[in-house]
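quick one, 182 residues, struct below
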Amino acid sequence: MSFELSKKTAKMMAVGGLILALLLVYSIIFKPLITKIRNAQRECDTCETHVTNARDFIESVNITWTESSVLTEEDVSFAIDELTKHGKKKNINYVSITPKETEQKKDMPYPILPIEMEIESDYRSIGEFLGSLDDLKDSLITVRSFVIKPYVKKQSNEEVDHDMLTTNLVINMYLLGQKYAE
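---
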């Protein structure tokens, strides 16, 4: 009987030791991992909430693209006229405006009309003009490039007006070609 009791005791001790070892492994390895996973889940939930709020905001913003439109090639002169009037309101003095050959890019369904301009203005006026090009109602325009230099009077090459600038500007005017007008 004492042999059987010690066998029973040994089994109980082995089971107890196994349970103790499992608790030790759980507390050392799995508990910290579960805590990290819960913290990561909370962070993911927070990010998901921010993304959902941002999507809701984007959907709630009423963006209308009707103010700028793509022009037919016949309307280019009207768009250039609108552009010059807009520039005059911003105190822009046009020295030259030169429409170039239209371009057709593979990924764009619309032809692009590059327009080279040389304009004279002060810093504030050129900034307001460039910043307000998207306000034009009858044309869609992007700025391709611009170079700003100090203004030099034409009569005397040495006389520099530090308040004025000469800007060489190339803009892209997007056109609705004849095949797209229908």
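The CA atoms of residues 25 and 31 lie 9 Å apart.
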